[in-house]
Structures are given as structure tokens and as C-alpha cells.
Records
---
Amino acid sequence: MILDTLGVGLLGTSTEVYHKVKQYSKIYSSDISSTIWGHLDFRLPPLYAAFVNGVAVHSMDFDDTWHPATHPSGAVLPAVIALSEAFPQKKKISGLDLLLAFNVGIEVQGRLLRFSNEARNIPKRFHPPTVVGTMGSAAACAKLLALDQAKCKNALAIAASYAGAPLANAATQTKPLHIGNAAKHGLEAACLASQDLQGNKQILDMESGMGAFYTDYSPQSLPTLQSYAWLLDQQDVAIKRFPAHLGTHWVADAASSARRKLVESSDHVLPLDKIEKVIVKVPEVKYVNRPNPNSEHEARHSFQFVACSALLDGSMSVQSFASENIHRPALRELLCKTQLEHPTDNKPSFESLYCEVTVVLQDGNTISDRCDTFYGHWRKPLEKEDLEKKFQSNASEVLPPEATEGIIETVYNLEKVKDCSILSMFLSGQSARALSEKLRLL
């Protein structure tokens, strides 16, 4: 076996596909490197920068969510930013280039998801970003590389062979790798396609292509460019206020409202010892049904944990998932009193689900509240001020204030920025003291 494997491997070094992969792989031994967000003194080759930064985006389940269900941005943005740094200095990538590539990556995800009714529900078998996110990353990077139509088709074909990861790894440290791999694999697929590596150009139309992931996948022709409408203009994303599965955000708002009613009738103190049980009505989503979470990742995927935390504290935050809060006795006591119910009209779709939280007291009285649309959902989007506060709160944990402000200013002016490397400079933590000089606006 050893001798045979060595022999066929040596023979394989003469094949066309080997030479294409070898040529592509020179990126690993080159001097090309990309920014690792939050680090001044640590850079990696673009592929691994996309991976590491992609993992960071999803490491707390704090990234945006779309409908049909996926996390669209985390698979695309780390890839295109990393790739933009790989271009030679004389070929600067503008903010508009970056913005267009990013939007292409989002659009491809949305179009693929809309070819399946199954995709409209909260997933059961695999994590959607590992499929459509990989395809979106490939499309975005192909756009940034200005690949022709044939190579773009090959990029998507290659990406499809990287796609997929089982949902069984939800609520573990492995789930964030899904986003990192989607970013990395999409970038890799586009780079391989740029070397003319070929795949099945009909991959998007075949039952054994994208149809392998969605059983009711039914691709359709898209409108002409003259009448084309971008999906982001029709369907906004949800922006999370705290780092947990999107379904728990309905729970948090309903539980927080129920708590306000409880304390108003109990001298403004939560009557924990008088609570007999807590009933949480949500859709049946098995991987978010965790009655006894023991880690931050399990807590982020637990209807019960978020209901009890919001009842105890009145709101949810990053600190809600700290170990001392997960294991505090009061929360454990309340978890034991909490049960889920799944009304037949409560479908597992981010477009239509609701949550109703009912607190049953020992004297027979009940306090209830219901959330149909939480603040941050696309029907009730975050105000610009709250979005900025979230960013500043998150970024200030790793970046100096000037870099944080530099990112905000750059993003808001991205269409005018001549060289988007300024964004990577700020992401690394470089000072933005000379912001007006560094921002190269048209």
C-alpha cells in the first residue's frame, strides 16, 4: 500500500490538475499576507486570514441572519477583505470594488436559497452558511478578481465541492469554523478557477449539484440586468442585539416584557420563590431546545436559558453568557421550572415565528407576554445609533478608539474610498489620528 501510494503520487505530479493546484498553492510560500483583525503584528496568507477572521465573525453567534435562513456576511466579507490585500500596490482595490463584490456574494446566497422552499425554514440537517456561504464567497472573490464568465462558473463548481457541514456541531466550538471555512473555501475556489481549474459548469442546475443539499431545489432563470432587482433591496437582514441563535431573540423580548409586568406587581422585585413554572411557546427547533446548557455555546442555543436569563435580568447582553452567569444558582433554579411548548401554528421560520412566555405563580395567577417581531428583526430594524453603539462596544474590546472611529467613517464612505486597504489598516488597530489624510476620497 505504501509503495503503491508513493508511486501513483509521483506519477500524478505530471498531470494538468496537479500543475494548476501547484501554481495556485504558491500563494502559501509567497510574501503576500493579509490582516488578522485586531492584530498589528500578526498577518497570514489571504486564505488563512479569511478563515481566521471568518471564525471570529461567528465565534459568538453575534453575526447577521437573513431569510431564508443563513448568516450571509461572515462568509463573504472576511474573504473579500483578505483578497483585496493580495493585489499588487499598483492595482489598488477601491471601496466601490469591495462593496460591489460583497453585494454579489450576498446576492448569490439569496438567489440560491430562494430556489428551495425547504430553505425558508430553520435548518434541520446542515448549517446553511457552509453551502450558500461558500458559494457566495466564491462569487464575491470571482468578482473582485474580475474573472470571465467561464471562470466564474468554474469557481462556483469548485466551491460546491467544498460545501456542507452537519448541524450536529451547533452549540459547540466547531460551529464558528463553518463560517471560517465558507470564507476560506470560497476564496480558494475563485483562486483555483483563476488558474483555469475546471468543474461542472451546470452545477447550479443539477439535482446532483446544488440539488444535493435541498431536496426541493428548483432553479429558475433570473431577470435580465435591465430589470434586475437586488434581493437586499427587498429583504433586509436581522442584526442581533446579543450573541445567540436568532430564534432566542423573540424569547428575550417576550421574557423581558413579562418580567416588567411581574416586578410591577411585586414591589419591583422578581418573586423567584413564588414562581411555579415558566412556559415558553416557540417553534420546534431541536438544536435550540437545551434545558440544561453547560457552556456558553450551548447557552447561545437554548430557548430555556435565554428565557430564564431575561426573566432574571430584564435584558440580554454579551455578559449573559459568561460562565458565572450560566451557572448561578438562581438561573439553575428557574431552568428547572421552565418548559417548552410548540403550538402547531408556530412555524420554524424567521419570517413568521413568535414567542409567548407565561409565568405561572404559586397562587394561580399568570403573567404572559408575546413577541411577534423583536427589535433588530428586518421588520423592526435597529436604528443607526443603536447599530453604531453595538459596533463601538464590540470593537472597543480590541481596538483603540481612533481605529474604531476610522472603521465607521470608512464604511460610511466606502463608495468614495480609492484604496480600501485603509479599512484593513484600521482593522489591524493602526491609529486613525490622521483620518482626514488617510481617507482617500474622490
---
Amino acid sequence: MLWSIEQVEGMLGVLKTSTDKTVIYKCLVKLRTDLVKDKDGIVLFRTAGGVPVMVRLISKLNEKIMEVVLSILGNCCTDEQACIEAVECKVIAPLITILKTIPNPLIQCRACRMLGNLAKSKKASLFLNVHYGAIAPAICHIIESTSAVQTRIMAFRVCRFLLISSQFYKHFLSSNGFLQLMRIFVAVMKNNEAPKESPQDIEVSTLIGLKRNQHREKYFEEVARNLEGVRSDIFDYQMLKNSTRNNEYVMPKEQEAIELASEILKCLMLLSAQQIGVRAWEVLSRNTSFAPIVYFVKEDSEQRSSALKILSNFCKDPCAFYMLSTADAIVAACELLMAVNMAKPLSESECRHCVNIISTLSADACSRSKIRRCGALRKLVAMIRDSHSQSERSSLFHILNNFQYDNISMELLLYEGLVPMLVRELNDYLTSDEDHHRRRREERMQGGKKRKLVDPTTPETLSKFSKTQESTIGSDFESPSSSPRSYRTTSPCSSRSMSPVCSNLLANDDDENYSPACSDDDDDDDDIKTTTTNNDSRESRIASNRAQPANVMDLLKLIDEGTETIDDTLSDKEDLDELSSDVPPKLQQLRNQAGDTIDVIENLIYRITLMINKRPELGKPETLDTLIRAINIFGANNNFANALTNILLESQFFAQIIKHGVVHQLYQLTKVEEMRKDGFAFLETLTNVGESNYGKEELVRLLRSEADLNAQQRAAISVAYIIKSHRLLYQFLYDGNALTLLFDMLLRKKSDNLYADEAADAVTAMSRFTLGITLPEHEVDEPNAIICSTQLKSSTAPLHDNCDMRFLVHRDNDEDVNGVAVDEAVEETLSIGFNKQLLCDTSEVFNKMLNSDFREGHKGEIQLRDYTASGLRYFLHLISCHSRHQSMPDYAALLQAFEMSRVYIIPELESLLHERLIEFLDSHNCLRLLEWALKNYHAELTETAISYYLCATLSSQDKLLLFRAAEDSTYAREWFQLLNDAVYERCRSTGY
């Protein structure tokens, strides 16, 4: 039948004027069945003014009329404009009165359906805000009191639309709505055919964790320490021997019950995104279970994705830990991850939810037992190996971190290749250019290098080697609960866990309108900031490698935006898969826990190095290089340095450390002021190993391995760095030919020599820190000392006011006359005048020369063919002025002046010039000094030059140039012999 607007208005007129209930009822039924059944009919009915008439009739006391009116209004409210018109006609107040007072299930169902459609309207729902305090108790009362399945479905549908509001959510919880929802869900999913077990009495402290005044060590401490840490297989048997898989729940067979369960899942999706109080969890734990939700976590379940997301969201609340654990959520998640050949493979979001559940629950020892029994550890390692998502690998590492005190599990993880994965992840973290990694590195650099020492009981004078060795005994058996530095507030075996606060609220996930197409019985169908702080100081690491705290789980925080497309505004097919679908987060995944991936990697590597059986991967070059790179970036006050110390102490890695040149890398740390002390501490650790019997044998074997020249050279370099005993050092340098190898690397002029730079630093370190070779100290001028302003390089300025004699010397190569360069035609000699009396007073040699029957005295001139003008002018100037000059002459002039002071026997001037020769000695003039000293048999300056070659703190390239320049000298043989003699003599002087 096609309705016209006149017919509709006529029918509405009858409803307005008639007082006969039978007539009214028949008219309403006619409108409901023939007109208000599709979108066009609803618009025609609203245009004719039918909504206000229905609002007036809703208060009729006749239940039959009330039921049809609610049905019509429910259909009309699928239209946005009709919803607004209804709330403007003040339909909410009588609707709430009906919900609170009418016990008829059919009327309650119609009222809930209408209220749900009003709540779905964005504009109309604003009018409901002030009525949440009345709506929530009324809906909860209907849910609890009615037995009609359709009524409960509509009531839960209302809750689903209103739970988006935090105000309604609070009223819903205060009305015990969550408890009633879970009770009904348990009842619907209950498998009545399963055998019943007697319930166990459970203390409140086990429901939500330990009591505040209960120490963590008192709860499973002995079990966790003595069993899980050493023999987790026995621990698992004892913990799980009486446990069975929960088979109490099954999918209901009735279609209505299936629809009710689906609607409850939709409500749980929203409830799981909210923060629930401790009291609510305590009541829930006593009376309900999450096992019905876990039932859907299986391969063939259509609601698998929704159930996983609900459980994952509940993981954010620490109070939900007990219910998640007792429901075997971790077992279901593990089995789902390990399933193969699934008809519907896990999506990325489902895999993420499984990892999140395991990460949360693995903080508990009993849950870890279930993971081990499921055999999921291998799968977790394989997921890390194959994953291309940094956030996923982060969560997986957090799971493995909870097994750090379980030696058997750690052995399995190491066998599966955990160390290379940790090293790869750490290396990526250290070299990544991502903003998050860069910012995190800067934070750790600022915190790590400024961290204060926190263990005053550690005497710094104790041996690093002995303290570390003693502390490692028994470290493998410590549990998190026994660790003095544990940051946990509960035992690792307790039922408490820490979770991030999630804010992924599902906003208006159902945009379709409820369909009135057939009848009122139609269906309705919708990362984490972990920071673990390890504040162990360098001294506390040296004193004791005590067990570090087990890190709390790092849970993935997701910002999910649920959106749906509306194909048909009248179809109410609210697909649960769409409701639970994950949209890739647009915002950067954050962590709001006390930790980060880098902290977990740091702790895991450290714990691995404490194990009795050390994996060979720890001694590989990539592992050592990455650890040293981390120490360079973050400083040495962390567990990266602890781990490196433990590796260095292991004799089984000593040969690899020598061959790879780790000793040279450690020495580079001593060149950084902030890590100088730590660099020497690492070298001291290697010294203890190298001077032990095993270390000596390895060094001798490498030094004699002529087939492997690189190993020979690296062994010689390592000997120079780490051997501190002079007697032992002499044996290696002389008998082991290490010194010859070192000098060969320094003097070999080949571009393919890879270790010349290392040899240069090794010779310097050995000379300075082992043999104690130093340069003579020179007197430092006082700050207020007088500085002479005479320009020594000026060739025309007179050196005295009364010049009554002169010197004839060779002109310098750069001498000029009046600013013009002298060419070859100009005479090569230069005349420099000076005062005769001043010379005679200064030196007896000059006095005899100028005042006796010598040619110099008759001519009044002295010819000095072996000296230059600059050297002579400086010498003559120092006779009258011993002050320092603003610009000192070149080193050759200093040497000539020094030689003249010796020739003419002027002791005071000789002493002064000797100090200045030492003061201005550098890599450019060391060879000149050595050659002069050897030529003139000056033993003291020869020793000074040789000491400079050995102990000068030059860059590697400068030292190479220094040595290779001496190799081309006339005195190369004498120089090389002096170097060897200096080293051997210093070793013998104190070692024998």
C-alpha cells in the first residue's frame, strides 16, 4: 500500500481525537506494519507530524499501546531528524520512567531499542548526558532482572553506545553493570556437560596482588630462587601438575544466545579500554572469570580478533592480572602464535595482541611455567629473527627479559641465537637516525655520564679482577625477589604486574541505524614507553656483579581509531570484526612504562654474561665492537660496561680479544676525559687475565704463530698494552720478539700495513704507563715574568748601543737586505756588531781571544763559519738579556746558541738554553735534537730525544711520521739501537 501524506495526517488525526483504546491500537498497528517500515515511510511519517503524536501516546498506561508506540518511535529514531524532534518533544523523561517501572520484558526491549537508537544519534545523544545517573541503574536493573534474551541484547546495545561517555561509564560501574555483564556472559558460555570441580577459597591478596604490608620476599621466594632459577623443569612440574586446561565454556547452540554473547563482546571491547577501580576488580575476581573471553582465542573462532583485543586492553590494568592468569589467557595466546597451517592466518594486529598478553603475564613465575610448557620460547625467538617491526621486537625482548633468572630457559634462548639478535638490535639502535632513537640516546648520554656513584661501601683500592670474580659466584641463582636492587614492588611469582594506561577508547564504533525492516527482533550486528633504569655505578660493578632487577613488561600502547562505512542506513549489521579491527596508528607509538628497548637489551646481555656457560658468540668481534660503541655513547656507568667486564674476565675469549684488537679500542677510551678511569680499569682487567698462566700461554702461542702474521702483530700490540710486570714484559719483548714486531710495524713504509697506528699507541702506552718513561720537567715561567720585546729576527737592528767589534757568520737562507731577497751574487757572509767588554765579562774564552795576541784581538772580529745569523743573534742577545721573548727563534737557532754557550763556557747560559730545548721540543725538531746530541756526544739530550720518541703523546699518524723520518737519518742505526736499549734497560732495572 502506498501512503499519501493526507492519509497519514488523517490517521494521526484519529489518534489525536479518539479515546477508544481499541481504535488507537489498530491505527498504531496499521502505521507500524504498513508505513513505518522503511526509510521513505519514516520520512513521510515524520513530515506528517507523527513524532509528537507518538511522544504524547507513550505515556498511555495501556501496555499494548505503549509497546506499539515504542516500536514506531524506535523505527523513527533511525532517522537523524526524527531523533532530534523526539528529544525536543521531551521523550527522554517518560522513556526512563518506563525503563524503571514497567517490568514487561517486551516493553523493556522496545524501550531499550529506542534508547539505543537515540544514543547513536550524535546530536540527540547530547540530550542524554544529564540523565546518565538514572539511565545506568535502570539498564543494569533490567539486565539483572529479566530473563528475556532479546531484552538483554537491546539493553547491552544501549550500554555499548553510551559507554563511550566517561560519565555513563562511572554510573555503569557503580551500578555493578560490569559484574552483571560478566555473570551473564559466563552463564551464556557455560558448558553444562563439563564435569564440575569444587571451588577453591581464594584470598583477596591473591586476587589483586600482595598486600601493601607484605614483603615480596615472603611470596614464593624460595620456589623462585631455588627452583625456577636453577631447575625450571622441576618448578614447572610442581606448579602445574594439578592444573588442567579450562573446558568449562563452549559456544552456545541457540542463535539468540550467540547474538547475546556477540553483543557482550562489543561492550567488553569498550570496557577494556577504560580504567577500572580496584574494588570492582576484587568483586569480579571473586564471582566471575575471563575464561569465556579466552574461549574465543582459537584458530577457528570468528570473534578471535575481538577477544584478543579485549584481553590485550585488559592487560593495561594491573588489577586484571589475576583474572587473566587464571583464565589461561597466556596459554591461548601462545598456542595461537605457534599454530601452523591456519585457515585464517593471524593478522598483524592479532599477533601484536598475543605478544602484548604474553608480555604482561610473563612477569609472573606461574605464567612463565605455562609459556615453557607450551614450548613458545622457540617461537618467540623466531619471531624476533623474522620481524621487521621495531615495536614488535621490543615487546618480544621484554618477554624474554622476564626469563633472565631461569638458567634452563636462557640456555635454550642462547641456543636459538639470542645473542646475535641482541647485538644486531643494539647496533641498529646505536646507529639509527630515527628521531626516537636519537632522542633516547641523548637522554641516556646525559644521564649515564652524570650518574653519581651509589655504593659507598666499595673501596676503590680493591682489585677489580678479584672483586668481579668473587661476585660472579652464585649470581646465576639469584631471583628478582632476592635482588637488592630490584625495582619491583612484588615478587616475580606474585599475581601483580605493571601495565601501561591505555587510551584507545573506541569512539562511536557503530554508525548504522537500527533497522525496523521486519520487526523489533531484528539483529544488531563492531605502544609503550618502558624505561628500566640500571643505575649501577662503575665502582659497584667492579665490587659486585650482583643480580640486576628484572625489568617490568613493556606493553604496546595502541591508538586505534575505529571507523565504519555505512552502506545502508537502515541495516543494523554491526559486524564484530569491524568493531575490533585495528587501524594502523597514525601517532608515534609511545612508552609510558619505566623502561625502553635499550634497557632490556642492556640487561639481557649483562645477564647472559653472568651465566656459567658462556656462549662463544659473546667473544665475537661484532659483539665486542657493539658493546664498546655503546660505552662510547652512554659512558661506563651501566650494564654494557658490566657485560664487557665479564667477557674480558673469561679466559676462553682472551685469544679472540687479542686477535680482534679489542685492547687498542679499550685504550682509546682512556683518551676521553670522562671515561679515562674506566678505560684503564678495562685494561687492568685484561692485565689480570694476560698475566695469568692461561693468558701467558695464549700470548706466547700467538707470538710464535708465524703462519698468522696478523695474530703475531696483534699479540705484540696487546703485550705492550696489558703486561705490567716488568720481568714478564721483558720476556715477551725480548724472548718473544714482541718489541721487534712493534718497531717493524712502525718503521715499515707500506700502505697495506693495517696495525701501524695501533703499534704507535701501544709503544706510547707501554712507555708511559708501564715503564714510566717521561720527559724531563722544565721550569714554568711565572705569570708576571718580564717578556722582552726585541725582534730577534731583524737582521739590521743593533744588538748593543756601543758595538766596537763584530762577528762574521753565514747569512741565513731567508735573510734579506732592506726588504729585498739576497741573490747568489751578494756575499754570503754577514757582519753582526757587539760590545767587546760585555763579551769579555761574560766569558773567559772571549776575554782571552780578544785581549791576547790572537788574530781576533788584532782585527776586532770573530769569524763563525759554522753558525747562522739567527743563532748568533739569539746567543748574543741572551748574554745581555735572559728574559723570554714574544716570538722565539726556530729550534736550529736554539741549538746553535746552546752549542756556542758550551764552546765559550758560559754555564748559566748553557743551563738556560738546555731548559728551553726541552720546553720547545716537538715532533718537528726531535730528530734535529737527536742528531745534534749524537754528533756532540751529549748523553742527557740523547736520552731526552729517545724518551720523546717513546713516550710523547702524539697522534698515531704523527708518531708514525716521527719514527719513519728517523729511519732515513744518518744516525738511524744508532737511534734504533738506543730505542731498544732504553726499553730493555727500563724493564731490567725494576724487573730483575
---
Amino acid sequence: MELVGSPLTATRAHPRSTPTKFLPAISTMASSYKNRFPYYPLPQSFSLPWMPSAYYKTAAINPTLAPFSKSSQGLTPSKMLPLISNRTTLFTRYTPDDWYRSNLTNYKESETSRHNAERLRVDTSRMILDKYQQTKRTQVQSTKNLGERVNDIEFWKSELCHELDEMIRETNALSDMKKRLERALAETEAPLQVTQECLLHREKRMGIDLVHDDVEKQLFTEVDVIRSCQERMQQYLDKAKVQLASNRAAQHELEIDLVNKQAAHRIDDKCHHLRNTSDGISYYRGVERIDATISVPESWAKFTDNNILCSQSERVASAKLRDNIENLLMVTANEMWCQFNSVNVAFTNRIAETADAKSKIQTHLAKTLQEIFQIEMNIETIRKAIRDKGPPLKVAQTRLDERTRRPNMELCRDAAQLRLVNEVHEIDETIQSLQQRLRDAEDTLQMLVRAKSALEHDLAVKANSLFIDQEKCMGMRKTFPSTVRLVGYV
């Protein structure tokens, strides 16, 4: 397209000022046509031919609004393109009709937007009210369901508590009977234990302390008399343990169910009392898509009912077993007094000889232990001396390290430098000598420890023999359990 302008030879040193009597430039109408690029005259550097054909050709073109470029927003008048000649400004792109039509279009668009906005506000208000009522009804129904669930949980909680109390009482009764049986077994086992431990521990004596005498003959006879009673007691004790384990398993199931009911009651009661103004409510996005349920109301109630029925059956079996154990204890209490008084004579001489040897060994061991204590104190002193040399060595080495950072000629091997080097060497030599002394002291300590171990071993041999004869054998055979103790009451 050829543009109208000055003659081909016309050039201007300075742009003319814009006439004020003509129609305004397109740029002054930018506020009425948003997102449109304003018209700016071409610069004077362009040579436009002054020809009629060019004028008619240009005037025949329908003006269009170019897109408003972001790069042109914010241009100052000084940065805009210079205006062309006054003759060019006579030919504008728009007519007054275009201007009025543009304004009418903007008015209609504004009125349409306002009408749509008003209709949207009315519809939104109606929708908000409907959704509020729907949400409120849903929340009321949820609260009611939670209240019914809380009542169901409270009912089964009371049933579980009642059965759990009964099971605890029965379990405690069976546990007491089991303890009586264990005490009776321990008491009836006392003579057998004495005999077996005498035979067993006397065989454990070492070296010359192993002596065979007439005591062992009576000990073997006493073993056969007691074992028949122990075998029957052990059978019922095993039954009691199995039944007690069954009772505790049923009790455990009841307790777990009760704990779960309590936790569910606490959670549902909290949910039942939650309101829109409650503290602690928050968003948990996606929680409605999580289905962690594993039961339905029917299976939930059946589960608790089965636990209660299982507990009741175990209680019946436990009561029957307690009666059988009571009868057994009365029968076995009268069979324990025949072989007790025939094996308590042959221990006195051997005990005296063993006690004398033990006393002498203890004297030597006490002296060795005192020396070990002294050498350990010495070792600790040496170690402390070595630790005390650490800070001075750190100070000297830190000083040397810091002095290595002196610049240029300041790195002087002066008296301070030499003394610090000597100080490090002296401390190192001191630490090495102390460590050598520490090794010597530790070697001496090892020798003392080996000597102590030898004395302790010999003392253990004598103490073992003395303990077997005096404590294990004679000590256990001084008394025999009474009938009250044999039936497990004491």
C-alpha cells in the first residue's frame, strides 16, 4: 500500500507539531477500544510520493483496528514514532459513525454483563440456601446415627464387662489352686529335692573331695518313695496350666473386644458431639474414598456374642478342674513321712576339714586382692597423668598451627617458634614414658589377677564341697514339710 505524504524530495530536519484543529489521533481513542494497537503516524524519514493515484488508493481501503501489542503499552510520547505532515493527518481511518457505534456497542456489552451478573447472584443465593438446608439435614441424620451407634456400643460394653469380671474371678480362683498345687508339689518335692541334690551336688565335688560313703544308699531309697506322688501332681499341674491358658485366652479376647469397644465408644461419642463450631475440625481430603471397614452390624454383634459364649464354656471346665485338684492334694499329703529320718548322720567330720582349708585360702586371697586394688589405683593415676598432658599438647600444637598462617616474612623461626617445637617434643616424650609405665603396671596387674584366679579356683573347690555338705545336704534335711504345707496352703 502506498501512503500519502510529502513530495519525494521533501525532507524535514525537525518534526512538525501536531495540529489541534483536526480530528484526534487514533491513539487518543485507545481507552474506548481495548486490546487494540493505537495508530501512530509514520516517521518523517519515509519518502511518500505526492500523487493523486496514491491518495485515492489509500482512501479506498477500509480502516481496521490492529491488535494492541503489549510492547507498545507504556511507550512515552518521546519514544513514539514522529508524526507525518499535516496533509497526512487529514485522512483519518474512522468516521464519527464508527465512533458512536463503538460507544453503543460498549454500552450494550456492559448492560448484558450486568444482567448476567445479577442473574448469577440470584441463582447463587438460591443455591447457597438450598445446599445449606441439605447439608444441615444430612448432618442431623449423621448425628442421630452416631447416637444410635453409641448406645449399641454401650450395651455390648456392659455385657463384656460382666462376663470379663466373672472370667477374672474364675481365672484368679484357678490360678490360686494352681499356686497351691505348685506349692504342694514343691513341698512334696522337698525330700526328693534334698536327696537328688545331695547325690547330684556330691558328684560335683572335684579332686580329692570326691568321697563315697553310706549316705548315698539311703538317698536312693528315698527317691523312689516320693516320685509316684510327684507324677500325679505334675499331671494335674499340666492340666491346670492348659486350662489357665485357655481362660486367659478367652479373657484376652474379652479384654481386646472391650478395649476396642471403649475406643470406638470414645471416638463415636466425640464424633457425636462435634459441631460446626467445635475445635479440632479440619479438612481431610479424600477420606471419604477410604473404606477401612471390615464388618457389618450383624457380624459385629455376632463377634462379641461368640466371645462371651466361649468365655462361659471355659469357666465351667475350670471349675470342674479345681475340684479334682483339691481331692488330689488331700490324698498325696499322707504319703511323705517314711523315709525322712534315716540319712542325716554322715556329714560332720568332712565339713570340719573342708572349713579349715577354706579359711587358709581366704587369708591369702584377701592379701592378693589388696595388692590388686593398689595397682589399679596406680594405673588410674597414670592414665590421669596421660589425660592431663592432652590440653598442653593441644595448646602447643594449636599455637604452631596458627603461627604457620603468618604472612610472608613474618614466618620467622624465632625463639617462640623453637620453644613451641621443643614443647611439643617434650610432651610427646612424657606421654610415651607414661604409656610405657602404664603397660608395665597392667602386666603386673595381670599377674596378680592370675594369682587371684588360682586362689579363687581352689577356694571355690573347697567352698563347693563345704556348701554341698553343710548347706545343701544338712541344711535341707533339718526339717520336713507339715501336712498344711503339703496341701499348698502355706
---
Amino acid sequence: MDKQSTVVFRNVGQLYFPQTRVECHYSLTSDHQWSGTDWIGIFKVGWSSVKEYYTYTWALVPEGYTEGTNVNYCALFQAFYLPRPSAVEYQFVYVDKMGEVCARSRPFTFCAPKPLEELETLKEERDEEDGEEELLLVIPRAQLLQSQLEECLKEQAELQQTLDAARKEADDEKEYNKKEKMEWECERDAMKEEISELRQNLRLQCDMLKNIKGKHKDVKYSQENLNSELSKLLDEKAESQQRIKNLEDDIKLLTDREKEENVELERMKERLKKMSNQMNHDEEKRKSLQVENEAFLVQVRGLQEHLEASEHVAESLRRELRELGARQGLTHTELHQTRLQVAQLTLQLSEENLVLREERANWALEREAYKHAAEIDKKKLQDLSVELQRKEQWLREERTEREKLEVELGRERDCNKVLLSDAKRELQELKASVKKAEKEREEQQLDKQNVLNYIRQLEDVSMRSVCSPLFLEQANRAEIPTETLIQSKEDTSDSDTQDENKQQCEPRADEGKQLILTELVNPVLSDLADSPMW
């Protein structure tokens, strides 16, 4: 029975390669009760029992995990425990300590990468003493994809951790804000209560002030009464002082009488001392008489105890006689009972003999049944030994196939090494050709600079030749039409026409400059285009 989804598998691929280890990512929810005996197994799709796993590994948790919290972790399946490449579909299954299924993943398969078609080339730059070099690395696409997948999973775990931390911070801020709000509300309520209490106190104090004012009036009235009473008391005090003087005279008389009585008391004490001495003498006589009486009493008690001991001895002898008579009767009854017990034991022996014979017969039957069962077990053991031999033979075949695969892998590695060496050689040749191309490029740049300098020199020469008067006359002759020449011959005397001719000749001279420059530069550029530099 599947439990409620307390575990979730994450990032389960559709294909895995058995030559590399497989990572199984999973998340434990707060409802899951994790135990150290939880495990994750790889099962064929359509399994019916938890014992039908192909391989398994323990489901671990990170350090500091506390029960009742969400946590993400990863379990690793090593390459030599994984199934062989085939079209069979497998799936991850999480099983807890009670043997109950907590989660299942989507199905996936194991396939082998093609060694030559599934290769990828990577460029790797290395800094040397003089400059940088590029290396071409040839690795399997499966390894590349596995490394990319691991990087993506690490990035995803880091992002998940940052997201959890951000969420935790947001929750902490919310809780802190709630606490502050509650504290502020409590303070506000307390302030309101204090304000109401202060108002009540003010009212009470106002009432008390009114009462004090009324009491003050009463005190004034009572003070007047007290003053009148005080005058009366002073009069009474004078009277009492007179009385005190009279009493002091009486006390003197009483003291004289007391002295006389003390003298009489001392006389009475002396008489009492004499009487006490006589009483002590009488008491000593009485104590001596008591001691003598006690000695007589001790002797009487010793005699009484001796009599009682003799009576006890006589009673004990009587009891022993009675017990002997009783024991004789008991011995007769015990003899009778022992005879009856012997008869019963003989009957029991005969019954046990019969039971023993029946048990021997049953034991013989059971022994035959056990012999038959032992023969059946021997046959089963023989069948199991035959199956064991078959399994051992199958294991030997698997080992030979594995050795063949290892040999093929070694050959493929050798081929990869050869390819790498060829690639390195080609790379060195390419570097040499690049260096040659760079040298040729530098030479071409020098040639180009020389040509440009030559063109500039030609332009300077052409500008100087254009500015000369001979060049201007040739240009004017070449460009001026015949009609203007005829008009110039006829109107040589007119100065106005000469000025107009000069103004016409100046822009045409400029056009002549442009034509001459193009005529000079075009053949040079055509020669440069035909050269191998371009």
C-alpha cells in the first residue's frame, strides 16, 4: 500500500547511462517520519513486491535535520550496481522502515552511449609564457551532458536554498512586523487605559479637594472648641497637682508601715528555716525504712519466681505426655495412608506403561514421516544445487562479457587517445599556418602602406603639375569648343570678353584636374588589384 505523498522525487530523467553514477534527488515533507533504515530502490516497472528491487541505497538526510521540516537531498547509485543497457523501464521507489512505499518516480531506461557518434569537441584556452593557446578536447556527449546536468542541479539547489532563505527572511519579517504591531497595539491600549485612569484620578482629586476644603472648615470649628477645652484642662491640671501632693504624703506613711512589716517577715523566715531542718531529719529516717522494706520485697519476689518456674516445668511435662499420645495416633493413620498411596502408585505405573507403548508406536510413525520429508528435502537440495551451478555459470558468462566490454572500452580509450594526438598535431599545424598567415598579413600591410605613400606622392606631383600654366593651356585647348575659339579670335580687342573667358576657364581647369587624377590613379589601382596582395 502506498502511503500519502510524504516524499517527492525531483529531476528524474528519461535516460541514464550505466557507465556513470546515477543521482536520485528527492524531497522529504514535514509529514514524513524519517528513519535510518529508509531506503530507495530501483525497480522494474510492474513490480508487485518490495523484495523485487534490482539495487538499492539508503535514504540519507543532511546534518542538522530536524523532524517535521522540509528538506531536499540526493542519493547516489554507483555505476557497477546499475542494470545493463536495455529497453526495460525502471523507476525509483522510496520505502520506509515499516516496508511501506512512500513515493514512486516516473519510468526511465538505461542505454549505452555510442562511442564514436556521441563525441563532443570542446575548446580550452591555456595561458603560456608568451601568449594564449587553444586546445581541442574530445569527450563523450554523455559525460558532457552529465556534467551539465550536475551543474544545473547544483545551481538549482543553490537557487532553492536562496529562495528558502528569502522566504524564511520574509516570514521572519512578517512575524516581526506582527509582533511589533501587537506590541504597538498593546502599548496604545495601555496608554488609553492610563489616560482613563489619570482622568479618573483627576476627578477623584477634585472631589478630595472639595472634601478637604469642607474638612478645613470643620477643623477651624473644632480648633475653637479645642481651645476652650484646653483652658478647662489647665484648670483640671492645677487641681490634679494639688491631689498629687496629698498622695505623696500618704505614700510616705505607707513606706514607714512597709519597713515594719519587713522586719516581721525576717523573723518569720528564721522560724521557717528551723522547721525545714526538722522536716529534713524526718525524711532521712523515712528513706532508711523504705530501703529495708524494698530488700524484704526482693526476697519475697525471688521465692515467688522459683515457685512459678517449678509449676512451669510440671506443666511442660504434662504437655509432652499428651503430645506423645497424639503422635502415636498420627503414626497409625500415616501408615494406613502410605499403604493406600502405594496402591495408587502401582495403578499409575501400569497406566504409564500403556501410555509409553502408545507413544513408542506414534514415534515410529513420526520417524517414518520424517524420513520421507528428509528424502523430499534432499531432492529439493539437489535441485537447488543444480540451480546454483546454473547461476554460477551465468555469473561466469557475465564476468566474461564484462571483461570483453572492459577490453572494448580500453580499445575505445586508445582510439580516443589517438584521435586526441591527431587533433593536437592538426592544432599545431593550424597554429603554424596561422603564424604564417599573420606574417603574410604583416607583409601585406607593409606593402599597402608603401602603395599608399606612393599614391600620396603621385597626388602631390599631379597637384603641382595641374597648378603649372602649361597644363592649364593644354586643358583649355582640349576642353573649350570651337565656337568659343572663333569668338575669342574676333573679339581679342574687347576686355569684357577676356574677363568672361577667364571666368569660364577657371572651373574647367578644376575639371581638368579631376580628370587627370582619375587617369593617373585608375591604372595604379588596377595593378594593385591584379597583385596577389589583394
